[in-house]
Fold these 2 entries.
Entry 1:
Amino acid sequence: MNIRLPFRLLAAAAAAVLALTACSGSDGSRGAPTSPSTRTTTGTPAPGTSLPSTSAPASSPSPSSPKPAPSTPPPTKPAPGTSAPLIGVGRLQPLWPFTSLDQARAWQREYRSGGHQPWHLSPEQTALAFTRNYLGFHEIDRITKRTVSALHARIGVGLSDPETTGTAAVVHLVRYGTGPDAPWEVVGTDDTHFSLTRPAYGSFALSPLRTGGRISGVDESIRVQVRQPSSEAPLGSSCCTPGGGTGQPWSLTVSFTGATDPVLTVVATTGGHIAEVERFTVTAVRTR
C-alpha cells in the first residue's frame, strides 16, 4: 500500500500536464500583422482652366462620350500585386490637373454618378490638356509616342507643323489614387536633350528661384515660367538666355509672387526656329 500510492499520484500529475499541453496548442503560432494600407496624395481641376475640347486633333485620340454611372461602384483598392504610386514629399509630385488626393477622389465620385469629364481616364488627352490648357503651348497638339502601363504613362507631345516630326516633351503621368477609374495625373517630364535639373525635383522653393540644366541644339533661346494650377497666368517668368551645342549647361533666375498651391510647376522652353515653343521641360517644387 505505502509503495503504490506515490505511483498513482505521479500518474495523475502526468495526466494533468498532458491535458494542459493539449489545451495550449503545440505550434505557438500567432496571427500575422496586417500590413498598412498604401497612402496616396493627389489633386483638383484648376479654377478657370479650360477642359479638353470635344474635338481632339486628328492625330490624337478623340474624347470618349460620358459613360453612364455603373450600378455598383468600382473597387477602390489596387488589383492584387499592384499599388498606387506614392505622391507627396520626397516622391512624385502632383502637378496637374489635381492638387490633392481629395480632389481626385471627388472627381471619381462625380464620374461614377454621372460620367463626369471622362477625359481624366485618358493619359493622351490629359497630357495634351496639360500642354495646351495649363502651360499654354497651343501649337503643340499632336501625340508623337506613348508608353502606358497599369500605373504609369509616358506620352510624347509635339507640333503638327509639317516641317517637324519631333517630340517637344515626354510627359510623365501616374494614376492618382486607387481603383480602375483612378484619374491620370501629370508628375513631370522625361528629359533628354533639354533638361531642367535645378531646382531639384520636389524641393522647397522661394523667390527668386535659380534654375538650370543642360541643352543640345543650335541657336536656342531659353525662357522659364513658374505656374500653379489655381492661377491662369504665370506667377513669374524670365526671358531669355541663349543656349546651344551638345549637352551644354544653361541657367536663369526667375522671380515669382502669389504662390498659394502646395506644388508649383517650373517650366523651361526653347524655340523660335519654326514655333515659339519647340521643346519644353518641367519640374515640380513645393511651397510647404
Note: The radius of gyration is 28 Å.
Entry 2:
Amino acid sequence: MKSADEQLFIIQDGTEEIIPVEELKEKLERSVKMGMPLKIKYGVDPTAPDLHLGHAVPLRKLRQFQDLGHEVQLLIGDYTARVGDPTERSATRPQLPVEVIMENARTYTEQAFKVLDPEKTIIGYNGRWFSDLPFEKVLKITAQFTVARMLERDDFAKRFAAQVPIGLHEFLYPVMQGYDSVELGCDVEIGGTDQKFNMLAGRDLQRWAGQEPQVVVTMPILEGTDGVVRMSKSKGNYIGLTEPPEEQFGKIMSIPDFIMIRYFRLCTNESPEEIDRIEKDLEDGILHPNEVKRRLAKDIISIYYRPTAAEEAERIFDIRHKPGLAVSVEEKVAVTEALGVEIPEVEVTPDMLTDTNRIWIVKLVVSADFAKTNGEARRLIEGGGVKYNGETVAESGVEVVPKTGDILQVGKRRFARLKVYTAT
C-alpha cells in the first residue's frame, strides 16, 4: 500500500472538493498503519437503463481507490429511486415502477464493471434496510433535520419561491441517502458536485449514530456533447459507455473544441502533465484541434473497448466523412453494417439469367428495389450512380456475370449483396 501522502496526491487529482481534506489524510494514515482498507461508497439510482461518460467520472475515481487497496461499495438505490433525486429538478419526478427500477439496476452493474474491478466491488441495495425500517426509526432519523435546512437547497428554494409544489417525500431523499452511509459505515462517499448537500447529510447522521463521519469527495459534472449543459440521456447530449465504438468516435468528434481539454482531464488516463502539454500546444498552434480530438476519441474508446477498436472506429469515421478517400467496396459495406444498417440480400435465380449466365444490370437494380422501373434504373446508371463490386457501371446496356457475395451499390450508402442460385 502506498503512503498516506502518496494516496492523497492521487485522490486529489481531478476532484472538485474534499470535505474535509484533513480528515481524509487522517483516515488514510490510520488505514496504512493498521493495514485496513477504507470503505468507499458510491450510490446510484437506477432511473435509466444506461450509463454514460458523465457517470464514469466518479466511477473512475472509485477505481483509483480500488487500485490503492480500498474497498468500494457500489450502492444501488432501488429504494431512493422510488422517491427520485430532487437535485436540480424544477418539478417533482414521476415515480418509476419497481420492475423498471430493478431492470435498470441490472444493466447499471454490468456497465459499471467497464470501469470498476468486479472482484473488488461490493454491490448493495438500499432496499435491504429501507424495506423493513420501523416508522419509529424513521421519526428519529428525520428529527435530525429541519424544514429550514432543507429549504437551503437551491432547487427547493427556487421551487418554494415560485410556488411550485414540493412533495413531502422529496425532503426525505437527502435523509435517505445520508442514512445509507450509516448502514454501510462509510469512511468516504464520492459523488458529483450536485450531491454535496446529500452527502453532507450523511456526515450528520453518522455523528448522530455515533460513527466517525465520512469524508465527502465531490467530482466535477461533465458537460455533454454540446459543451454547455450536463451530460444527460434526456437532453440527447450523452456518450454511452456501451455504445458501439464508431458511435462514440463520431459523438466525440462533434464536441466543441473548447471542451476537449476538460474531456481529457475527466475521461482519459492521460497524466496531468501530458494534458497540460496538449493544452499549451493547442494554444500555440502546434497541434490542430482535429488531431487532438481524434486522439481524445481513441483514448476514450480504448478504455471501454480496446485500442484496435479505436483504430477501426476512426477508419469508419473517415470513410463516412472524407470525400474522395480511397476505400474498397468491402470496407464500405463493413462500415454500413457496423452502423447498424442491414445489407439486403438480392436473390438471383436461373430464370433471371441469359443463356451465358449473365444478367442485365438494369434488371438487377430493379430487383434490389433501388429503382421502381427500368427507366428509373437507366437514369441512375447514366448519372454514374451505380457501381458493381466497386466499379462504376458505364452504361445501362451492361450485362454482368453474377456471383454470390457480389455487391451492388447505388449512391453513397445503398448496398445489396447478391445470392445466386444455379440451375440443378
Note: The CA atoms of residues 280 and 286 lie 9 Å apart.
